[in-house]
Amino acid sequence: MNTNLKRVLAAIFGIVLGLLVAIVFFADFNKGNQNAESNKTKAEKVYVPYGEKDEYYMMASGGHSGQLFVYGIPSMRKIRTVPVFTPDPATGYGFDSATKEMLGGFTWGDFHHPSISETDGEYDGEFLFANDVGNNRVAAVDLSTFQTVDMMFLPNMGGPHAGVFVTENTEYIALPTRFARPLGDAYATLDEYEEEYKGVVSMTTFDREAKKFDLAYQIVLPPWSYDLSDAGKKMSGDWIVMTTYNTEFATTNLEINASQNDRDYIVLVNWKKLEEEVAAGNYDEVNGAKTIDPRKHKGAIYAVPVAKSPHGVDVTPDGTRFIAAGKLAPMMTVFSFQQAFDAIEKGEFVEEKYGIPVLAYEDVMEREVDPPGALGPLHTQFDDRGNAFNTMFISSEIVKWNIETGEVIDRTPTYFSPGHSAATEGDTVSPDGKWIVALNKIAKDNFLSVGPSHPESMDLIDISGDKMEHVMAAPVDPEPHYAQIIHRDKIETITVYPKDEDRKNSVWKQEDTRVERNGNEVHIYGIAMRSKFIFDAKSERPDAVTVKQGDRVFFHMTNIDLDQDITHGFGINEYDLNFEVQPGQTNTLEFVADKPGVYPIYCTNFCSALHQEMSGYLLVEPK
Ligand code: CUK
Ligand code: CUA
To answer: Model-level pTM?
Structure first.
């Protein structure tokens, strides 16, 4: 080949290469531009300018951390961790006397399902209820202070996983159990499972004035496992519905043995009827609880078959239908309350199980929704336009479909494996259809790596249009199973605890501070204020206390700084103790001074320029 030809070919090659590079460059440039454009719109949707606040609170369960996580929506910024079932050194929750007693000696909890108190089927923003699958408790968080105010241990339960959910006017906070156990802490071998083990539903009430739980009654059901349940609304307001699995009574290797039957059940309970039974004295007392047995109490408990091993069941906002998500059967089943009521009215049952009349599937089922390739449906949420949204655990997506027609409208991927999702105002009679947050179990490579175990992830999805739009993802500590999202206008917090001169153990004037000895009990009535502790104003050193080794010491501390956000901490060096008093609050720390010596006391919560000076001494005289 001559040099000229070579040059010509090289030139042509160069031009072609240049063109290719240009095409690729411009194509990439365009793609980048498009992404930049859509990223900009997405960013604008979640950006909350300084000085403004998020529109919604998201209250997410903290799973086996036993805590409540509070997020702002749409920014997805975490605002607070509220300790519920687990002690929290930072706030001294579980250290001061009141919260220590409330925790009942337990040091962990497994919180799955938050439920905000309701009035007429709307979140009213007063309280949030929490279940503890780990140690059989129910708790209430006061949403005016975001502090846990009451907790009740539930007898006869084996992990109240399938709650909490509240009835329309918070008449009841319901908690069905996950694991069957013999009643009353009795012992029975696993061979006696079918006869001796029971599945129990706790129906608790909450007195908003006294901020106290009460166990109204328990429903004793067969030893099936109950899964996430819901309360009826409007026309179905007197009812609760619960999914079941392991109707096979498997006692080992559940993975296989509890998935044998093609159908399990949804249990329908008329709580109003049972309330009447209890009021009429028709109950048995077991381990301190009033119990109802469907073999003795007819006309209030029914079952309807459902595709095998369902996970969640959710009642539509208008209360006409309940939707079961299949878990193992890849579909959502829509059931009609009216059809169920008609079949009950006619007395048409296919069989009876443990005294529970079973309705025919065809009689109650309205529609099966089976989007192709959508696998592992777990939970259902709703918008304001008649649509349902299902999380698909296995195919990692949210499917939006129309409740009336069953038509699938849209599908969007999630990152990855969503359990629940939470829609804005989603569990009320009027969801507002703005946002949905997918609560994912797996984050994989979404965030900066922190080693083999990753955080969970949450996807924020805009559902205000026909098409869902994935806007952003945020990491979250393990593990929000469920969340509720409430509009900020419904939450009214206080800025300081009201000054109450009659409050037990409170001290408001410096001259009233004192140390009282009663046998080997020492009570210190003290004040915390910027920037000192006063244990006894009359003493030469008001910020030092001397006790004897072996004394039982009570520090009753009142924070008299009635100023927003001026919280004082109270740590005792080497005594492994810390608690806090929020503005206007009185708290007590009780302990035995068993270690002799000199122990500095200091404020652990940075409260003023002289925070470092806010300290004192505990002197423990040796025996
Ligand atoms: S359960 Cu966790 S994904 Cu405890 Cu509500 Cu369904
Ligand atoms: Cu009080 Cu720091």
So the answer is: 0.93
